[in-house]
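User: I'm new to structure prediction. If I give you an amino acid sequence, what do you actually give back? Let's try with this one:
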Amino acid sequence: MQANLNQVTGLPQKDKTQAYISLLTSTFTSSTSANALQSDLSLYLDAILSDSLAQMVARPALVEYVNKLKEDLPGFDREDRKELYKMSLEKMQPRVTSFEEQVSTVREAYADLLEEDEEFEQAAKVLIGIPLESSGRTPEAKLHIYIRIVRLFLEEEDSTSADTYFNRASLLYHSTSNVETQLLFKGCQARMFDFSRRFAEAASKYHELSYHSMLAEEDRLASLSNAIVCAVLAPAGPTRSRILSSLYRDERSAQTEHYTILSKMFLDQIIRTTEVGPFESSLKTHQLARLPPSITIHTAEDQPEEKGKKGPETVLDRAVMEHNVLAASRVYNNITFEGLGLLLGLRPSAAEAMARTMIQQGRLRGSLDQVESLIIFDVETKEGDGVVSNVAVAGAGGEEEEKEEQAAAPATKRWDLQIRQTLQLAEGIAARCEELLAGATQVAVTA
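Assistant: Good question. You get back a string of structure tokens that encode the predicted 3D arrangement of the chain. For your 447 residues, that looks like this:
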């Protein structure tokens, strides 16, 4: 190889380009082993990347080299090809300002190879080396690279590294009208919210994606399933209640594996520990993250020693416990700290602390009576207080007196009102059916 390169060097300037390309072609066809080819190509790159060689000669030769490198090489396995790409980048990187386009092409091809072999982190690092800030690429092309880097880091669950490039992608999102790129960005956005434990926002984004017609049916169902998971993990409160209502009314939710826990949460039913197991087994690593240790609450010396957990240990623990506090508020007018602790599997002081925090944040309506060790719930109706009651209220006309009576009534009376409204709706439907049937009969007789 070195002798051939020396011969090319002595040729006239106008003949060098074609000579280098011919030498490259013969090198690829005649090499018998990966090591020999890598050694020859290393010498070839040293020659064409030399400062003494004019760019008008070097550039076409390097373009041909990149094209040859991207082709399938008979007799060379994937690891051999990776080594060739790695060696090429090491040789080309010092001249990146002169051959930026060729270096970027090699990096993208190398990243493709690494991604196919599920070496996601390494592929992301290879793409990071592309000089996007100084290049003449369009904003849409830059956005595509940034989104790809984010996706690769998220595959390794490295949300910290992904966040930097997601922020850069966010600045360029407005520059694209390509629907596929927009979908990829929204998918990354939902996953970033998910990894950042902003579960309510993640659930909304996943649910939005699940309606997009460009996604395959199984991808839409996967997005819907992710939306349900994030909604379950979101902090209990009005925001999550609205999301749960939207998901529960989605007819496709019944096809997902998480429909049972979704229905229990939407209908404000107490969730037992034994019912959480199947759902917990489907969670990803970051969704099982452990929470910081709860602060120990010191009680009076004359109080008996408390037993039980000091607080929720995982994100799922916290979500289920907060849900059960809200569910208890739908059933009871008041409950003791000890009773709530038994319900949640917590110490009474820890149950009190959880209820107090939810009240302070506006996610639970009620008050604490520390003298009597009671939590007193304010009776309220939530949006979507059961599917039947929603339909019944709409059908019954929603008279103001009944609404006021329902809001102030205990749980048992509210249930009686809901039954009455449901029966009124059923009676209205039956009357309407009779009218339609009578009209159809009259038309038939006339005909």
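You can read the tokens as a compact description of the fold. Here is one thing that stands out. The first strand starts at residue 334 and ends at 336.
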